[in-house]
Specification:
single chain; mainly alpha; two-stranded parallel sheet; 2 strands
Length: about 120
């Protein structure tokens, strides 16, 4: 998934060297090959267990995906019964595309404030 979807998208968006990839480090998703791959693909731009960057694990209040994105996508997806993987993929894309630019700006601002508070502490 990282090789076939994430990396090409980061390259396409021109942000491969500036995006920060957050890996949750769940045991089923974390064989040594994954951290090796992340260290090669995003040497300074990933956070998670065994990453070169210090971060606070299991902190949903510090992550955009946990405190905003998954809830937004789930509320959109569960309005209609999903009957296939293809339909699920379409609904996820629709959900992401339905997020307003100003809403994302507020989310990013809130996230930066949360990070700043943690740094101060």
């Amino acid at each position: 998934m990282l090789e076939h979807f994430v990396k090409p998208q980061l390259v396409s968006d021109g942000i491969l060297n500036t995006a920060v990839f957050q890996h949750d480090g769940a045991l089923p998703e974390f064989p040594l090959i994954v951290s090796d791959y992340l260290n090669r693909m995003l040497p300074r731009w990933w956070i998670g267990r065994s990453s070169p960057n210090i971060w606070t694990p299991r902190s949903p209040d510090l992550t955009l995906l946990d405190f905003f994105m998954w809830g937004c996508i789930n509320s959109h997806n569960h309005r209609v019964k999903i009957t296939s993987l293809h339909q699920l993929c379409e609904r996820i894309v629709e959900a992401v595309n339905s997020i307003a630019h100003d809403q994302l700006q507020r989310v990013f601002s809130t996230m930066a404030e949360r990070w700043s508070l943690c740094i101060d502490k």
